[in-house]
Amino acid sequence: MTEEKKIKPVYSQFILPGAILLAAILISGTLILTRGQTTGSNNIAQVGGQVAQPSVGPVDIQISADDHILGNKNAKVTIVEFADFRCPFCERWYTQVGQQLISDYVNTGKARFIFKNYAFLGPQSVLASEAAECATDQGKFWQYHDWLYGNQAPESDLGYYSKDNLVKYAGKVGLNTSQFSSCLDAGKYSKKVSEDLAYGQKIGVTGTPTTFINGQMIVGAQPYETFKTAIENALK
């Protein structure tokens, strides 16, 4: 009895620290698992496409009369990009992928390219998308689109996409700024921008850039070769 009384207090000293350590391990494991499973627009945008591709079949994407289309409308391959003008990975896609795809496939008549707004990074993104749409009234959507990506500010610089600045940028691409400003003030394209976002969400877009090659989804600013391979396969 005397020996047992000596052992029990020594053993009990380890129970509480051991329980705390076990709880810490379980909590850490849960946090790691949760982070690994997190999905959503922000997560995909941050990793820039370095995520597993969804195991889904081709999506039958609706193309409407007010969509922005470059290239031969009857081309065998249709490239559709959902993007946010403030997304840094969209800028990377524009610089490292988009321009080359247009040169190699759109300008040669093999593919057509369609841009759809996915303005999800806050009110400034929405306003930038509406501004690009307003440029359409003067036949310069693509010029404004290219200027915004070619002169993109850091995502933290919200003032860069103020209404006054967006009007100023319109002047840089030769737009009538008075007409452009009136379009923005009236919110003429707010419905279209919100409908683009809603449609993208409906067909499975969760972040930017997301591109479809003949309906096959490719997520993120992946290397040019990824898109080239998909287009070549579609051309066969």
Structure summary:
With 236 residues, the chain is of the alpha+beta class. The protein is 55% helix and 11% strand.
Description:
- By secondary structure, this protein is of the alpha+beta class.
- The chain folds into two domains: 2-37; 68-235, 3-Layer(aba) Sandwich (Glutaredoxin), CATH 3.40.30.10.
- It contains ten helices and five strands; from the N terminus they run H-H-H-E-E-H-E-H-H-H-H-H-E-E-H.
- The protein has helices at residues 2-12, 15-37, 41-47, 88-106, 123-136, 141-150, 163-172, 177-186, 190-202, 224-235; strands at 68-71, 77-83, 111-117, 210-213, 216-219.
- A five-stranded mixed beta sheet has the order 1-3-2-4-5.
- Strand 2 (77-83), helix 4 and strand 3 form a beta-alpha-beta unit.
- Helix 5 (123-136) packs antiparallel against helix 6.
- The N and C termini lie far apart (86 Å).
CATH topology of the largest domain: Glutaredoxin
Q: What is the SS-derived class?
A: alpha+beta
Count of domain modules: 2
Main sheet makeup: 5 strands, mixed
Detail the poorly predicted runs.
1-55
Radius of gyration: 25 Å
